[in-house]
Amino acid sequence: MHMSHKVEIMQSMSTDLTGYQGVNAVGQPSTLAAARADNFYYPPEWSPKKGGLNKFHGQHALRERARKLDQGILIIRFEMPFNVWCGGCSSMIGKGVRFNAEKKQVGNYYSTKIWSFSMKSPCCQHEIVIHTDPKNTEYVIISGAQRKTEDFDVEDAETLLLPADEERDKLADPMYKLEHQGEDIRKKKEEEPVLVRLQRLSDSRHSDDYSLNRTLRDRLRSQKKRVADEKKSARRMGLGVRLLPPSAEDAAAAARVRFASNFEKNRKDKRAAIKAASIFPEPSGSASKDKLDLALKRRNIKASAASALMAGRAKPSSWSRQSTGSGSARTAVPILARRK
């Protein structure tokens, strides 16, 4: 390609900037706005003699984060190191909540800088100031919040209690070590057999990894099978939850339940009333109520007579046939007589 042809191509590219469309890092076309945002766009008036793009545009590489850099303040993302109570509205700010904080140096601890972080609380826009403490490797709340006190029991948390500052200073004293050396040796001799047994037990349990893995898999397989059977039985009974296996406590609790004694009687009365009632609508009044009561009494008399006959307390003495008219069906009614 001739040099004149290259010059013509560069001139056409510089004059047609409004329709610019390049290719980004993943091979997709990017617009002119995207190229400018990524600092990949170089305007035609730029030249390498004018330095980088930030210097050419008269801005800092950190953009808005460095707007107070002349005051020694840099905007950073600060993460709350512990749970605190907001000093403005007494709301709790959890550990790990992030803020746009102003970072600046406020002093030195020997050669280590002490930094200050100022931020606004998200609940009431109250200002919170936190400093670093290089001496104790800790953060210190200066103003705007109060650290949440979280005490715990060493035994419940299953942790070790760290010695206090005074105890640590004593451990550095050789005379203190000499005085307590005999007691430490005695404790070591007393606890050494227990430690040896624990070590042997641990070695014996973890000597065969294949057997341990197999046992664990068998246990999980049987547990999954039991859960599947319980879900299947629950679906058969029309339940949406899995039933737990029966236990002796549940059986004893169910045996102690006592229902009302008149439950069966009320149920029979309701069924008799439903059977005796007509399927056709009747006018409301005392007449329909009297008919319903009379039907209930008749049904109760028949039920008591039948039960007496089955128990042997009465026997049929004769049969009476009553005719309801010419050509009508005959109904046999047993007449019960008491045994003497």
Automatic annotation (TrEMBL):
<dbReference type="Pfam" id="PF04502">
    <property type="entry name" value="Saf4_Yju2"/>
</dbReference>
<feature type="compositionally biased region" description="Basic and acidic residues">
    <location>
        <begin position="222"/>
        <end position="232"/>
    </location>
</feature>
<feature type="region of interest" description="Disordered">
    <location>
        <begin position="222"/>
        <end position="241"/>
    </location>
</feature>
<protein>
    <recommendedName>
        <fullName>Coiled-coil domain-containing protein 130</fullName>
    </recommendedName>
</protein>
<feature type="compositionally biased region" description="Low complexity">
    <location>
        <begin position="317"/>
        <end position="328"/>
    </location>
</feature>
<dbReference type="GO" id="GO:0005684">
    <property type="term" value="C:U2-type spliceosomal complex"/>
</dbReference>
<feature type="region of interest" description="Disordered">
    <location>
        <begin position="306"/>
        <end position="340"/>
    </location>
</feature>
<dbReference type="GO" id="GO:0000398">
    <property type="term" value="P:mRNA splicing, via spliceosome"/>
</dbReference>
<dbReference type="InterPro" id="IPR007590">
    <property type="entry name" value="Saf4/Yju2"/>
</dbReference>
<comment type="similarity">
    <text>Belongs to the CWC16 family.</text>
</comment>
<dbReference type="GO" id="GO:0071014">
    <property type="term" value="C:post-mRNA release spliceosomal complex"/>
</dbReference>
